[in-house]
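Meet the record:
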Amino acid sequence: MPTLHNPLGWVLSAGQRARLVEIARQHGVTIIEDASYAYLAEDAPPPLAMLAPEATVYVSGLSKSVATGLRVGFVAAPPELVPALEGAIRSTTWNTPALTAAIARRWLDDGTVERLEVRKREDARRRQALASQVLAGLPGIAHPSSYFRWLPLARDSRPDRIVAALARRRVAVATAEPFATTPAVPQALRLALGSVGHAELRDALAAVRHEVERDVFR
């Protein structure tokens, strides 16, 4: 995820992308570029698929940028990989319902997708600003227009205990475990800022702050 990494919100610079492509070419590695959240980052460098089209499988869709129910995805890949990808799609999801595909095609053509993406970027910025306000003083890692936030915790914190306490208050957050790529799982929480209204989000973030600070002094 070179553009709007989930859950850290990082956007690789042009130099970092060039280096990544260089390494992939050197070792004959195929790059799988997940662009699910790329629409949220304005003025990002070109995708890896433009830098190395012969070595990159670019994957994205409309369920994140438009609507959860619009389950339409797409893949751009080197020609020699297309038959294998088509076979994998047929053996798993088969195809997208015709009505859903027709809606997606029309909204792409008439500018609806572009308009909705603009509105979502604006909404995400407001939600991140709200999170920064409520969680002021706590460490946080996030892109200013993303729908998620990474909240590092103290070394002696118990993320599972914080998650359980928040669940009792009907607030759902994730620990770092589902996102960890190393045996040692980071001490952190992943906060999702979308779905609920702004007032409810403020209350939920206040609950997160309360339980995190309470765990530190327990």
Remarks:
- The chain has a mean pLDDT of 93.
